[in-house]
Amino acid sequence: MTVLCIGVGRCFNIYPRSDVIVLPGETIPEDCDKTITFHKVETLDECLRAIRWRFFTHEQVASMGGLRVQDDHPTAAADIRAEWLPAIHRLLEMIIDDIGNCPLDSWHGARNAILQGKYLETCPNTASLHNALVGKPAICLGAGPTAQAYLSRINPETHYVFCCDAMAAGIDFVPQFTCMLERTKENLMMVEAAGDGGSRLIALPVIDRRAAYAFNGKALWWMTPDYLCSWLAPDVGRAYAGRSTGSLSIAAALLAGCNPIYLIGQDHAYGEGSVTHADVAHKLALDGHCSPHESMAEVHHMRRFMVDGNNGQQVETCGLYSLFKSDIEHILTAYPDRTVINCGGLAKIKGTVMGDLDVSPFLVHEPNYIIKPIRDRMQDIPRIIENAQKVQGICDKALAWLENGSDSSHVAKMLVVSEMVDRDLCQLFNFIFCSISNNLNLQTQYRFSKGQDAETVFRAALRSQALTMHALCEVMIGDLCI
Length: 482
Known about the structure:
Blueprint: E1 3-6, E2 19-22, E3 37-40, H1 44-54, H2 58-62, E4 68-70, H3 78-97, H4 103-115, H5 118-122, H6 126-129, E5 138-141, E6 160-164, H7 165-168, E7 177-180, H8 185-197, E8 200-203, H9 209-214, E9 219-221, H10 227-232, H11 245-255, E10 261-264, H12 277-285, E11 305-308, E12 314-317, H13 319-332, E13 340-343, E14 353-354, H14 381-403, H15 408-414, H16 417-420, H17 426-449, H18 454-481
Parallel strand pairs: 1-2, 1-4, 2-3, 5-6, 5-10, 6-7, 7-8, 8-9, 10-13, 13-14
Antiparallel strand pairs: 11-12
Helix pairs in contact: 1-3, 4-17, 4-18, 11-13, 14-15, 14-18, 17-18
């Protein structure tokens, strides 16, 4: 768990591996845990900048899933902290909401997909999984707190087990499928044992390419309906996976034709004592990397509230888990004929029925996948670099035109992706640049709200777009030239 302390106070004696904002008038203590990082600030701007840089990369932002903000301990700068806290809370919410809206993150996902190389050609994909297990019983195993009661009853010889990566390190059997959505180093640590045991990885092609190696190339690529997968595999069917490994595991079992499907540990709510999936399985995988569990009541971006429980009572959840649950409910609407049984799950999931895990006499076997190969995209790297350089040249020209007062509408046409890159690479570059457009829309709305005139706002957005595209292309060229 990540701990962010606002003000020194006595927090340095309590939270190892924490980040501490040293407020004006405070001093950094001499005798403290060496794992603590101190950020000395004098103004609110410096404070916000320190927090933004602390949670800047994709992995750092992803770690906020277990963030605890400590802001009520005694400190000599209590008045300053009280004045700054509203701005700090707004920043933390903005950061977590931007996790999927980072241009650098989009490129890293595209880069990973390109570098999967031959594995894209030789491994099955969503088209291969479609109806590969019609009528076979399946278990979608999440890492929620209620999963522990069922682990001893799960038999991977009688049920196809679709296991979330966060749970892979917390079980003593090898599931047939291990589902992986994120690409941080912690996720790799969770799934290594499953890969060694012969499980098949189900993952989006944006994951770290080392994951496929960990599974000895035994992967199944999940193609989603986005620009990147449309470019990678234009002739392969694509399916929505949601925003969590829980939704991915359920989508995979449904696509495979499994029936019935048992949901275990798919809680999407807090258990007794505010226990979450992170406390159930992550600590098993990341021993030595996590702090002991603390109440997460102060986690501002988690936005906790009550929802209907699976047993008819109210349970406590948060904004993030509610999004994941809504993804599952959306996926289930496409399969009204399936029996999906929520075994002990805390939050009620529409489209499921409450029930228990039944014993199955069926003996599982590895399906024979029909592989519709996806072209190895590493051969496109020279042209991707060439097109990135072309984009940089156009961005330089656009910036010069803006500086000289040229018509902004002409500059806007210059920065349209389809006008800058080869036609067959448009979808790739649209995927990489789409976050830039999303961010610019937010910035533009903000500037309009402050009363700035349309032309000033438009020119500022174009300049920001050209600068960001140019910088991102520089990163792309550097990554692909290695």
